[in-house]
Amino acid sequence: MSKKLTSRKEDYSKWYNELVVKADLAENSAVRGCMVIKPYGYAIWEKIQAELDRMFKETGHQNAYFPLFVPKSLFEAEEKNAEGFAKECAIVTHYRLQSDPDKPGKLRVDPEAKLEEELIVRPTSEAIIWNTYKGWIQSYRDLPILVNQWANVVRWEMRTRLFLRTAEFLWQEGHTAHATKAEAVKEAELMNNVYATFVENFMAIPVVKGVKTDSERFAGAEETYCIEALMQDGKALQAGTSHFLGQNFAKAFDVKFTTKEGSQEYVWATSWGVSTRLMGALIMTHSDDNGLVLPPNLAPNQVVIVPIYKTQEQLQEITNLVNVIMGELRLHNITVKFDNRDTLRPGAKFAQHELQGVPLRIAIGPKDLENGTVELARRDTLTKEVIAIDNLTEKVKGLMTEIQTSLYQKALHYREAHTTEVDDFKTFKKVLEEKGGFISAHWDGTEETEAKIQELTKATIRCIPMDENTQSGDCVYTGKPSARRVLFAKAY
Amino acid sequence: MSKKLTSRKEDYSKWYNELVVKADLAENSAVRGCMVIKPYGYAIWEKIQAELDRMFKETGHQNAYFPLFVPKSLFEAEEKNAEGFAKECAIVTHYRLQSDPDKPGKLRVDPEAKLEEELIVRPTSEAIIWNTYKGWIQSYRDLPILVNQWANVVRWEMRTRLFLRTAEFLWQEGHTAHATKAEAVKEAELMNNVYATFVENFMAIPVVKGVKTDSERFAGAEETYCIEALMQDGKALQAGTSHFLGQNFAKAFDVKFTTKEGSQEYVWATSWGVSTRLMGALIMTHSDDNGLVLPPNLAPNQVVIVPIYKTQEQLQEITNLVNVIMGELRLHNITVKFDNRDTLRPGAKFAQHELQGVPLRIAIGPKDLENGTVELARRDTLTKEVIAIDNLTEKVKGLMTEIQTSLYQKALHYREAHTTEVDDFKTFKKVLEEKGGFISAHWDGTEETEAKIQELTKATIRCIPMDENTQSGDCVYTGKPSARRVLFAKAY
């Protein structure tokens, strides 16, 4: 198997694209910009889904399902939201094909089957959902509504990349309705925190929590909370967003409720989402030139066992031992696979599991049988050790935690080493060029300055961090007063 | 709460529509023929999904995800399949909206953003998937491929009904690829058996396993296996299908593999699916004039506890007791909800839980506290009993099994009472008219006779059952020779 990857140093972007395909995570499809998520990639996504779903339910949310299509008249009701997504909409205009009279065996759109009103394939579901909530909400007793949906959405992006930016992607979108502004703001913050906890603890990716500037805010939101992560090439990646939508959608769809006191008020809203983009963050945070590196929490197989044998008798002996080992590991909720394929040599198996990021590989050969040992190989550090088989289960359990923690620490260390406080624009450009990463700098708060800096450097304000670092200063570009530092970076 | 339903006798169809909406399962949306699945309905669907997903994985399948869109040129590649779905396709023709110059604040389709090739919103995914498999399959070593997808699909039906027939619906679709015909046939049969086991054991709905006639077969299949259930109005409902696709898609997409012996052969295929239609089957099999009746396996809350109290002190005492009860029940994996809302009276709560089909209701009042008792009310039988609290957990555990079994038995009894062997056409019409249900009759095997019977009676051949009843006879309509009885019924 010639699965050697381009190195990150050589061409980071090529490395990423090759890795996604060679590790069997996803591939491009026959539909422009749409991907096929392959079984191994989807198994990781299922782990992401399961844990997030658990966290959503623990915080009181329920799942539901709303239509894929949004009638144009609903789509355009909230003007800012409509404007924000209008340029990247897939639009259904007809509902029937017919035989093509000019081309036997071919079909064409039936010109008589034109829809009276065009349907937009949802790029996000605020419009269709708030039009539905109108029927669900009469009184304060009907609030809050805490609903989430797992769905596919379509945004007709011109430049696409597997997982990071695709015309169709999978995501969850929470849509909540509240009686008060304070409650809605609290919900938006809560869900941003849920995302941060998930991405840090489960995906081992450190994130900065913050809010977006006006220009980077979600179309139709009053405040966008976000979590930002730093990739190994020094570029930032927005890993999740949570929006306080104010009463914008309630007003657009006329959703009022009767308060306890009997008055009529518009409902307050939030929405929040993460997508298959998280797969891109996962890959680019941890992986190396040998392939994918998976934190144990997300690995479809946490441990793989490879037998080394020459005779069928040896294989049988190893298999007997492996059955005992697997039974024990599974008792401790460790997922383990015995790779006993007879079509591949051990070396090829090692290479494949390395490429696919299996956290821990156990090799067992005839000498191990004699000595009562096994060989352990850690994917993250690429280190090997031979241990006594008696300690195996405890050792593996310990390593699962250790690898998970170590990956997080490594990524955190990288981010810390690539977050630079900068106070003049010359240094800003130099740091951005030579080192990349987050630049913590003062900004005068205007869209003009933000746009100018982007024009000159391609860096955008990733977020205004929600941290304690709130000293005032002078804008790195204009020198005008700045209330606090913000985080700039080039971004995915 | 005026939630009284129309009775089944009065108007079965109206009863169904009211029940779906009033029990908070689903509702119509602003998009013609598309439904909103509400949280309570979706929670039932999640239980269906979870169990099926487990069963698919146990039989060696993995999940993946393929694009929502099918380019027209791929869609039409397998001619029969294309022909079968051409008349009900939603078609994307454009990818951008723009401001409408004639209507300020409104949007219109940008005429310049026309797609070069139209995209069909998948009505089923054979085409896009086989086009993908072409890249995955070179040799016999790449086979079998055992993949399933959970997805939404769109079929532009003209007459829609919540869950039973909607323009968009949720489903799973398995798509497998095999080296031999025998293996593919075995897979198609296996998955039909998985469906039967699931629907019978988990949903408590008895089914007949069979194969479809030529005219009812899936477009593009060589054999369609199915499970057919009987609803309370005597109409049949197709609950799941599994197709042996032969080499049709392999030929249409030129998917060949190198055999062990070195020759090139086309790959053999199956596909199989069940959808949110199962929700319709669930509702119509078990529910009554008071509302939904849920088998414990599918109930989001298997048990609900309602406190009866006048004073806050009483409520506190009851709450303390309920906490202990819930802890115990949960230890036995029974899902239980304490309905302590102070905005509703107990009677209203009883009515709601009855309408929503909670299998078991526990009421606890001051007298129960004195006597060490609770009142149990079974939803399926509408019977009540007072029992000593000491026996509660065992009693509830027993009832969960008993209700599950009893619902199945009741439905089986209904089906048996509504399956009639008929040997002449006059009786055929009379039974169909007066009693409904399945009619087991001889058929001469021709499409003409099948069509004629349908024209005269609206009954179709639901399936050729896979049972032992294979005696020959004379066609109920033409009198011509018939190899075996088949099942006729009016159907959803």
From TrEMBL, chains A, B:
InterPro entries: aa-tRNA-synt_IIb, aa-tRNA-synth_II, aa-tRNA-synth_II/BPL/LPL, Anticodon-bd, Anticodon-bd_dom_sf, Pro-tRNA-ligase_IIa_arc-type, Pro-tRNA_ligase_II_C, Pro-tRNA_synth_II. One of its GO terms (molecular function) is proline-tRNA ligase activity. Pfam families: HGTP_anticodon, ProRS-C_1, tRNA-synt_2b. Gene3D superfamilies: Anticodon-binding domain, Bira Bifunctional Protein, Domain 2, C-terminal domain of ProRS. It catalyses: tRNA(Pro) + L-proline + ATP = L-prolyl-tRNA(Pro) + AMP + diphosphate. The keyword Aminoacyl-tRNA synthetase applies. It is an enzyme of class 6 (ligase). Its EC number is 6.1.1.15. Belongs to the class-II aminoacyl-tRNA synthetase family. ProS type 3 subfamily. Catalyzes the attachment of proline to tRNA(Pro) in a two-step reaction: proline is first activated by ATP to form Pro-AMP and then transferred to the acceptor end of tRNA(Pro). Homodimer. This is Proline--tRNA ligase. It comes from Bizionia sediminis. The gene is proS.
